[in-house]
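Prompt: Have a read of the protein record below and flag anything odd:
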Amino acid sequence: MTGWLVVGYVIGTLVLGGAIAYAIGAGSVLTFIVMGWPEYLAILPQRMFSQLDVFAFLAMPMFILTGELMNRGGIAQALINFSMSIVGRFKGGLGHVNIMTSVFFAGISGSAAADAAALSNTLVPQMQRQGYSLNYAAAVTAASSIIGPIIPPSVILIFYGALMNTPIAALFAAGILPGLLLGGVLLAVNGVAAHVYDHPGGKGSELPAFWPSTRKALPALLLPMIILGGVLFGWMTPAESAGIAVVAALIIGFAYRELNKEQLVLAAERTLMLLGAIFIILCAISTFTYVTALAQWPQKISGAVVALGLSKIQYLLVLNIVFLIAGMIMDVKAAVALLAPIFVPPALLMGVDPVHLGIVICFNITVGLLSPPLGGVILIIAAVTGANYWKLIKATLPFFLIEVLLLAVLVTFPSISLTLPTWLGLMP
């Protein structure tokens, strides 16, 4: 009971805005003392370093740097023009462009925040000039940015895979179809909204020429193929493909003549800041997972599941509700790191496939970026565009509900996630 009170303290501290690493780390150390295990604190430094000594984590800094370089290297505008040349002819064309650009951008940055920040600056003002309301333009940008962490390369998939010892290549392959399916669903919703609200677009719209925009975007479009092809076909590890991605991002940025020394310094500084935050969290989480192992919380949850007679699907439903609520109030990586070590092992004991479970959890927790009261993507877009936060929440709600419905489909039909990694022989 005392241990769960400490968990309540940690969650309460996070909700009130306390630093993630300090809240989790302090709560974990406090648990050792309260539970009468102070002697185990002596082994914590060794455990922290062993938890960080994971080869997969090498990919994270380089994929983050790739996203930063592409954000500053003119890639967003090239992808927007390419998408506009394809779907701009349809009613609600710029909404479709927004979603398609997020699909392409996802294969490069792997970050919802990077996607949201880049497209808020470029596409939202453009949509407003063509007659879209600020709230709708910002809402479709927020909804489509969720594609970023699902389609690989994805920082959250790397984080989850390393944390829960799940093959990252398999997670990458498993994220492709759900990510594309999410993009297709959002295109359909935007198409319906275009006719309901009479959005601009359609015949007579001024469009970029297809071949020039394709030539301009081709280097960026080839980059995801290089990254994914190398990982999925076993030619490269995720870390090696991330290194190649950095080199390619530099070449593309300089080729577009948008990248300079100042931008390189800013990209490096931003990457170091994000890495510092991530690795401090990982140190705190290594302490927390040690506590959960000693207190046998996963085993106790498994016992409770057995006692309640929950089926596999029923437990997955409970798990998804827990993660969805956590995503509404907590940082994505903190929620995964805090809750996955507790709730994932019982699901695995019930026979849930670890790769399918990883995709479901990462999709779930990412949808939380779109939900009140602290949806991270909505906060970013509201700050960048000047949209009213609560009006933006209301405008985003239909997209959020559709994404929750898609999450239920992914839970019910594991084959959506598992078909591609099984076909490629990547399943553990």
Q: What stands out?
A: The chain has a mean pLDDT of 80. The CA atoms of residues 48 and 286 lie 6 Å apart. The chain has one domain: 2-423. The two ends are 36 Å apart (CA to CA).
